[in-house]
UniProtKB/TrEMBL annotation:
Keywords: Aminopeptidase, Cytoplasm, Hydrolase, Metal-binding, Metalloprotease, Protease, Zinc. The keyword Acyltransferase does not apply. It is found in: Cytoplasm. This is Peptidase T. The gene is pepT. It comes from the Bacteria. Zn(2+) 2 binds at D145, E180, H384. It comes from Fusobacterium vincentii (Fusobacterium nucleatum subsp. vincentii). Pfam families: M20_dimer, Peptidase_M20. Cleaves the N-terminal amino acid of tripeptides.
Length: 412
C-alpha cells in the first residue's frame, strides 16, 4: 500500500484522539459533554481550511459539510457519518503510542503498571504483523472508536479535493455527538443532510460491512413492597427484594448475552437495586428478528401481569421503551447501498465480512428516518477500553473504500 497517499492521516488521527470527548449518560444537555462541542468547533475549522462547502454545526451538535459535485450529470448524493464521542472509559490524557513495523509479539502498554496487550488474549494482533499500530498507554481508551471514522472521511474528501480528475457527485459528511450513550442520532436531521444514502464509518476490523442490527428495548420493573418491622411482619410485609428475585427467576436462562451469538437474541439483566420497601430491575431486550423481538416484549408484559395477579395488587410497574430497530428492515429494500460498498471492497482486494451487528449504530436510527445507512469498518480493535488499538494501514484501507464507493457511485 502507498502509505504516502493520505499524508495527513496519521498526524490528524493523533491530534483528534487527544481530545477527551467522552459522553455522559447522566447528562441531559446536547451534546452531553461540553468537550464534544469544543471538538466540533475544531473540526469545523479544519473543514473550512480544507475548503469544503456549506459547513455548519447544527443545534444537535452535528458538524456538517459538503464536497460539491464536479460532474455535469446527476448522480446520487452519498453521505458519510461518524461519531465524535468516546465510550464510558477514562479518556483524560490520552497518550497514543506508535508501534512501527509490528513484530507480532506482546506489546507493553505501560511498564510501571504492567499493562500488556497480549497476543494470547488478543489473537487478532497476528493480523497486523509489519504494520504500524497505534495503541494506548494503558491508562485510557484510544478513541479510534470513532475518531478513526472521522479521520477517514476527512482524508477521503481531502484526497478527492486534491484529485479533481476523479469525478464524483455531491458528498455530504456529518460528525455527531453522543453515539455511545445511544442518543446523538435521535436529533440527526435527515432533511438537512439531504443525501440519498449514507454510511457510518464505525465498524471494527478491515472488511466489516453491516446492515443488520438488533431491535432494542429497555424494560424497567419498578417494584413497590410493604416494609414492616420483621418481628411483626406476618401477613403484612411484601419484600420488594424477593419480588425482584422472582422476576429475575422467571426469565429464560439460556437467552442471555453470554450464551448467544449470531442472530440469537437475548434478555440482559443490566441493573438491579432493591430493599424491602422498593426495588428496580432493568433489563435490555435484543433481537434481530422483529417477531421474536415483539414476543420478548410480550413475555415481559405477561410476566408483570402474573406477578401482580399473584400478589393481588400492583406490586410491579413496567416501563417498557423501544430504543432502536433493525436497520436491515429498511435497507433490504435498498440493497444496492450494501452492494456498492461490497463492490468497493472487492475492487480494492478487501474481503467483505458481512455479519449482523449485535448492537446498534447511529445507522439503526438514521435508516428508520428514511436514509439507508449501513456501517463500514473504521479499522479499530478492542473498542471501549485500554486495549483498544488501530493499524494505520486499516485506516488507509477504510479511506480507500470511501473513495472507491464515491467513484462507483459516479459511474452508476
Ligand atoms: Zn462507535
Amino acid at each position: 500500500m502507498d502509505s504516502k497517499k493520505y499524508v495527513t492521516l496519521k498526524e490528524r488521527f493523533l491530534k483528534y484522539v487527544k481530545f477527551n470527548t467522552r459522553s455522559d449518560e447522566a447528562s441531559e444537555t446536547i451534546p452531553s459533554t461540553p468537550s464534544q462541542m469544543e471538538f466540533a468547533k475544531m473540526l469545523k475549522k479544519e473543514l473550512e481550511e480544507l475548503g469544503l462547502s456549506n459547513i455548519f454545526i447544527n443545534k444537535a451538535c452535528f458538524v456538517n459539510a459538503t464536497l460539491p459535485s464536479n460532474i455535469d450529470k446527476k448522480v446520487a448524493t452519498i453521505g458519510f457519518i461518524a461519531h465524535m464521542d468516546t465510550a464510558d472509559f477514562n479518556a483524560e490524557g490520552i497518550n497514543p503510542q506508535i508501534v512501527e513495523n509490528y513484530d507480532g509479539k506482546d506489546i507493553v502498554l505501560n511498564k510501571e503498571q504492567n499493562i500488556v496487550l497480549k497476543v494470547d488474549e488478543f489473537p487478532n494482533l497476528k493480523n497486523y504483523i509489519s504494520e504500524t499500530l497505534i495503541t494506548t498507554d494503558g491508562t485510557t481508551l484510544l478513541g479510534a472508536d470513532d475518531k478513526s471514522g472521522i479521520v477517514e472521511i476527512i482524508e477521503a474528501v481531502n484526497y478527492l479535493k486534491e484529485h479533481p480528475e476523479i469525478k464524483h457527485g455531491d458528498i455530504k459528511i456529518a460528525f455527531g455527538p453522543d453515539e455511545e450513550i445511544g442518543r446523538g442520532a435521535d436529533y440527526f436531521d435527515v432533511k438537512e443532510f439531504a443525501a440519498d444514502y449514507a454510511y457510518t464509518m464505525d465498524g471494527g476490523p478491515v472488511g466489516e460491512l453491516e446492515y443488520e442490527s438488533f431491535n432494542a428495548a429497555q424494560a424497567k420493573f419498578k417494584i413497590k413492597g410493604v416494609s414492616v418491622h420483621p418481628g411483626t411482619a406476618k401477613g403484612k410485609m411484601i419484600n420488594a427484594s424477593l419480588i425482584a428475585s422472582e422476576i429475575i427467576e422467571m426469565f429464560p436462562k439460556d437467552e442471555v448475552p453470554e450464551k448467544t451469538e449470531g442472530y440469537e437474541g437475548f434478555y440482559f439483566l443490566d441493573e438491579m437495586k432493591s430493599n424491602c420497601e422498593e426495588g428496580e430491575v432493568v433489563y435490555i431486550i435484543r433481537d434481530h428478528d422483529k417477531a421474536k423481538f415483539l414476543a420478548k416484549k410480550e413475555f415481559v408484559k405477561e410476566l408483570v401481569e402474573k406477578i401482580n395477579k399473584k400478589y393481588g395488587r400492583e406490586v410491579v410497574k413496567l416501563e417498557l421503551k423501544d430504543e432502536y430497530y433493525n436497520m436491515g428492515e429498511i435497507i433490504k429494500d435498498h440493497m444496492y447501498v450494501v452492494d456498492i460498498a461490497k463492490q468497493a471492497m472487492e475492487n480494492l482486494g478487501i474481503k467483505p465480512i458481512i455479519k449482523p451487528i449485535r448492537g446498534g449504530t447511529d445507522g439503526s436510527k438514521i435508516s428508520f428516518m428514511g436514509l439507508p445507512t449501513p456501517n463500514i469498518f473504521a479499522g479499530g480493535e478492542n473498542f471501549h477500553g485500554k486495549y483498544e488499538f488501530v493499524a494505520l494501514e486499516s485506516m488507509e484501507k477504510a479511506t480507500d473504500v470511501i473513495v472507491e464507493i464515491i467513484k462507483l457511485n459516479a459511474e452508476r
